């Protein structure tokens, strides 16, 4: 077993010269919307029609980029993998632009590795996202304070992607060649908090199948077995939009908080589905993906979180049944991009107001929540 080598801090960007890099072909109207949004946040805009030229710019530019906006029409997954393989670019946010807020479009973008998804023509959403990113902290690796973990994967690319995601969340990461390393580490005075492996549990290892994958215990250490191909796993679990980052962070969050008493009246359950939200009375929706749900609230994954205290109208499909629901809620807290260590992706938590929700919709929501596995 060996420790993660890429623990050095990424260089601090020049905050006075922040830029947005557009990759791919955007319409003239989209380009104008993005340029106006960038100007409001004091950013410049650079264009690269091809992913190859974009990567060259990112690798050679002394200034770097604040984020990447990726258009449709090229292999986003391959581009994101190339970006993530660069140690100095690993924390660079990649936002995908999609034509419509459909489950298929969002699923394709997240499974390709995008950090957030923007619907084409949503000028307000672009403006707010760039504003948040312009105020984000420097992309330094946070201190590894959440405990140490082990990553076991034969594929070097998978090891790097999993290891970097967990390191960026605040874990100390070590790599093991196989599950024997987990067994050995479990006998140490300070065993790993958890381990992650790619593939399926070997024969003879008892495991539990849950929404994020298969979970087993090796020498008492919880091990998440990640699917080798997230897209194939998504096809087998079409009810939820679960990408690699979502799987890792949900499992890491559960393990990191396992020894703490959850004071919620009901437990959080994984439920990932496209949703829309807007401030009460507004006709213009923003879009995100639900991440976890309880009877009392929802966490939404988005780089466009509303202000805490905002009264919200939330539209989503009910867990299990898929029935369209309209719910009323209040935004209570947010996790902004660049917030440092943490086991939740950027987004916001909201508290449902059952007194204001349409009664039939709220009953359907509670019924769907009850049907989800914990």
Keywords:
374 residues; alpha/beta; Rossmann fold; Thrombin, subunit H; 3 domains; seven-stranded mixed beta sheet; six-stranded antiparallel beta barrel; 19 strands; globular; disordered N terminus
Structure write-up:
There is one protein chain. The chain has three domains: 2-134, Response regulator (Rossmann fold, 3-Layer(aba) Sandwich), CATH 3.40.50.2300; 148-256, Rossmann fold; 269-371, Thrombin, subunit H (Beta Barrel), CATH 2.40.10.220. The strands form three sheets. The protein has a seven-stranded mixed beta sheet. The two termini are 32 Å apart. The model is unreliable at 2-16 (pLDDT under 50). The chain has helices at 28-40, 51-60, 76-84, 103-111, 123-134, 156-169, 179-185, 230-236, 244-256, 359-371; strands at residues 2-3, 19-23, 44-48, 67-70, 94-98, 116-119, 148-152, 172-176, 194-198, 207-210, 213-218, 221-226, 269-270, 274-279, 286-293, 297-301, 311-317, 324-335, 347-352. It has 374 residues and is an alpha/beta fold.
């Amino acid at each position: 077993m060996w420790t993660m080598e890429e623990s050095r801090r990424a260089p601090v960007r020049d905050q006075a010269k922040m830029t947005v890099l557009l990759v791919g072909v955007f319409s003239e109207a989209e380009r104008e919307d993005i340029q106006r949004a960038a100007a409001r946040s004091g950013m410049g805009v650079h264009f690269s029609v091809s992913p190859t030229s974009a990567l060259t710019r990112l690798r050679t530019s002394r200034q770097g980029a604040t984020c990447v906006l990726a258009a449709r029409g090229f292999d986003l997954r391959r581009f994101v993998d190339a970006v993530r393989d660069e140690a100095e670019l690993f924390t660079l946010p990649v936002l995908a632009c999609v034509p419509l807020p459909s489950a298929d479009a969002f699923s394709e973008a997240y499974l390709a590795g995008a950090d957030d998804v923007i619907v084409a023509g949503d000028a307000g959403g672009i403006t707010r996202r760039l504003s948040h990113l312009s105020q984000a902290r420097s992309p330094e690796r946070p201190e590894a304070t959440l405990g140490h973990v082990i990553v076991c994967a034969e594929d070097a690319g998978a090891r790097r992607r999993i290891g970097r995601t967990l390191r960026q969340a605040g874990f100390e990461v070590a790599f093991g060649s196989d599950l024997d390393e987990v067994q050995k580490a479990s006998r140490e005075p300070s065993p790993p908090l958890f381990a992650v492996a790619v593939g399926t549990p070997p024969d003879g290892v008892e495991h539990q199948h849950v929404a994020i994958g298969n979970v087993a215990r090796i020498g008492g250490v919880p091990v998440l077995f990640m699917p080798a191909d997230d897209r194939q796993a998504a096809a087998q679990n079409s009810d939820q939009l679960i990408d690699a980052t979502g799987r890792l962070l949900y499992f890491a969050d559960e393990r990191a908080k396992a020894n703490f008493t959850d004071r919620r009246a009901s437990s959080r359950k994984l439920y990932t589905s496209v949703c829309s939200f807007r401030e009460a009375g507004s006709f213009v929706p923003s879009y995100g993906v639900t991440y976890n749900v309880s009877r009392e609230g929802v966490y939404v994954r988005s780089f466009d979180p509303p202000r805490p205290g905002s009264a919200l109208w939330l539209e989503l499909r009910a867990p299990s049944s898929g029935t369209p629901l309209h719910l009323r809620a209040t935004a209570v807290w947010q996790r902004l991009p660049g917030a440092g260590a943490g086991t939740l992706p950027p987004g916001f938590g909201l508290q449902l107001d059952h007194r204001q929700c349409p009664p039939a919709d709220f009953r359907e929501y509670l019924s769907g929540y009850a049907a989800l596995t914990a």
